[in-house]
Amino acid sequence: MGAYLLILVAVLSRVVVSSHVAWLNFTAVGGSLLYFGARRPLRESVWAVLAMMGSDYLLTTCCYGYPWHTSQYLVTWGWYVAAIALGSILLRRRMSAGRLVAAPVLASTSFFAVSNFAVWAAWPTYPHTLAGLGACYVAGLPFYRNDLISTAAVTAVAFGVDAMAHRMAQQRQHRLAA
User: Fold this and answer.
1) Per residue in 4-56, pLDDT tens?
2) With CB atoms 3.0 to 4.6 Å apart as the test, which of 26, 33, 45, 141 could cross-link to 83 if both were Cys?
3) Which of these, 32, 155, 33, lies nearest to 102 by C-alpha position?
4) What is the value of pTM for the model shown?
């Protein structure tokens, strides 16, 4: 249940950030998808992805007032699936500090790399040259920084609370057994 609750927090964090503190770009999306992948069966990932897709639609049409074009979100939606798979691969069976650090770094970096490349390739904002690609990545660096920080923070809190609850349950069982 906690994984679904964290997806809801991620959706709400996107709405709050987009409407009130857009400069912050601090959302729970990456960390929640990693946690979902680690804690829920992959067959359930459709619900997490649908929630994120729905928030994309609502943000685009209601908050930003832009017209909806599904094709503009295919890369993002593919990344949602990849982030859940990354959480499942890295964090489901064997948990370690290294894996808890690697997962948010890989998730944020992959989103930065793929989404900025897609912007460069699909939009006329930057020249379709190596210099234009570089300019696109440089323009995305502040967003990357904030995404990396928020993904790492949400991942740490989610797995930290999970570990703390597990430890408290074990301590309670030991007390009851004694």
Assistant:
1) 999 999 999 888 876 655 556 788 999 999 999 999 999 999 999 999 999 99
2) 33
3) 155
4) 0.90
